[in-house]
Amino acid sequence: MSGRYLTLGRSGILVPERIKASYEGAAEGRRSSNWDAPDTGVNSLIMPALRNLRSRSRSAVRNDPYAANVIDKRVSNLIGTGITPHPRLLDKAIRKVMQELWEDWVDEADADQLTDFYGLQALVARTVEQSGECFIRLRPRRLEDGYAVPLQLQCLSPEFVPHDKFEMTRFGNVIRAGIEFNAMGRRVAYWCYRNHPSDKSSLNVGYNQLVRIPAEQMLHVFEPLEPGQLRGVPRLAPVLKRLRSLDNFDDAVLFRQEVANLFAGFVRKPSPDGPPQLDPLTGAPVKYDRDGFTPMVGLEPGTMQELLPGEQVEFSDPPDAGNNYPDFMRQQLMAAAGSGLPYELMTGDMQGVNDRAIRVVLTEFRRRLEQLQFQVYVHQLCRPVRKAWLDMAVLAGALDLPDYAQRRREYQRTRWVPQGWAYIHPVQDVQSRSMEIAAGFASRSEVCLRNGTDAEVVDEENAADIARAKALGLNYSSLPAVEDDPDESGDKGKK
């Protein structure tokens, strides 16, 4: 009975045959003998491979046009012109002061002074997509430095925090992958190099000196894919091998075509007997190339080449790339779209795609990016920066909020709005949103936020446009209709 219903698995455990056969993916027969699927923890899998994954991902982005396009398209759609804050305070005056101070600070946010805060968002997103993660250090500044708010952000590549640092501290904390945890498992510090450990331009000054940075001064941005994951994985990790094989194949086909097209034709001539051959047009001896036997015959449009007696011309018929080359490349690139970018955007190939199909593709792509925008970049980057900025603004006296300590959570409530998606069908999309507002399914404020704008700013601009048009005696059909004040019209009638 036991021999009939029980089998000995590879792990040495008796497995019921019926249960074992119910999941074909768990079968251990001949077809699955080379299926290597380790069941170790996520960090044990990531750490040994992280160095190669980063370097190969960066190499692919530098040299492979498809890989570069994946990163460029994802960053431009994730961040665009920036994810902007909209305070949720009810006091309009305080909101206005906070927004003006924020706009002044945005231009000074970068510690390297190369871009603004929204440019840093794009840089962080590019680093996360290309290398798997990014660190941002909050750098307080002195009041006499003259910044709107004495705070700047320093963007650090993943190598600054060594992923191979594992040890116990003398205070009982644990350092795992360069991150220090306390007894409760909370991040309390990051161990960071003073300079990039692989950057030779820094003259190796402090390249091996680790500094303990409190967790309150460091932000770690990455997408966790499994519970307990400590470090991020590059976006191209699942498709790196396929992209490299595809690039090698495409390059081999291109090189074969280049070599084949070097020969336009061949001249057959009889064995040389008698005096040297002369060019029939110039009378000069026939010019031979360096190998001493191949005549140099140049081809130009409209050329009529006279041949010597007994010579024949045979034009070369080089092989093409093959009938299955386009289909093969298309199929492989579709598989390479596992990088998170649709095939149509990755290659620009819209063959056989109508507007409804591309709308479905873009909708799914945007839904995925919105998930990353709010669950990764807003949560791990934008909110912590905003909180640190508000705290520093109040401490430095840039914002006069006497009750900030009591109402800190209320002041920090902010809605982050990414750049709005472009219309696929402008007329249809605007009409559908107008119908949503008219039916009460959405407010004008919500629709404006979807577009990345503020309804209050839009209203103020519309009011200013109307007032200016009236003052100049202009009448544009594009201006919103505003009824005249009956009191003002009555006063004018009495006068």
TrEMBL record:
<protein>
    <submittedName>
        <fullName>Phage portal protein</fullName>
    </submittedName>
</protein>
<dbReference type="Pfam" id="PF05136">
    <property type="entry name" value="Phage_portal_2"/>
</dbReference>
<dbReference type="GO" id="GO:0019068">
    <property type="term" value="P:virion assembly"/>
</dbReference>
<dbReference type="GO" id="GO:0005198">
    <property type="term" value="F:structural molecule activity"/>
</dbReference>
<dbReference type="InterPro" id="IPR006429">
    <property type="entry name" value="Phage_lambda_portal"/>
</dbReference>
